[in-house]
Predict the structure of Transposase IS204/IS1001/IS1096/IS1165 DDE domain-containing protein.
Amino acid sequence: MRRTNALTAQLTDIALFLGGRAGASLCGRLAATTGKDTLLRLLRTLPVPRPESVPCLGVDEFAVRRGRTYATILVDMSTRRPVDVLADRTAHTFAAWLREHPEVRVVCRDRAGSFREGAQAGAPQARQVADAWHLLHNLAEAVERVVGRHRAGLREPLTVRADRDDTRPPAGVRPATLGELDVHGRPRRLAARTRERHQQIHERIERGDSLRVIARELRLSRGTVLRFARATDVEQLLVAAIHR
């Protein structure tokens, strides 16, 4: 099918902004009916821009298939734009990319050991720093643990009179114990996460999965999985989680 250069440029812009399916829908509204596969082919004909100098590099992993296949995305922290995608998240692959880009002076990463090792091997001249999201996330977890240790010194939440019918939990719902609530009477995230993790691990054990497989799927250490597996009752874990 022949198109003018102007129409081809317009369709390419639509594909860049909306992708295949949404772009095809818009083209139909604009009386320029085009299939999603055609728009994707136009995208594939575009030249791939070579990344320019990246002195400050951000690195993180993402799931191609959760629990099975992971890849790595590299971002220019100055422009906040992706510069490359690596096929896996191994230290060897990351180090090889860094050797081809000696201009990298700062590597912004999470606490993954593979990225640390890759940066040390591929860019020993670069300074490694923690990204802001993981700093705040780790800080929140640390504060939560400290508050849990000093739970006894905090003011108890206000309680409603027990003789009111609307304070009773629905049938089949276990009421939260006092230690599982924060100072405002809301469920604590640590206790909820412990219950969810205990359920996930024991469901997989009943399914016949090994501890190694469970640890890989849930991205936990084998010791953590073993500790949850040995606890037949989640209350055993909640005592440690609440006062940790």
Q: What stands out?
A: Residues 12 and 43 are 7 Å apart (CA to CA).
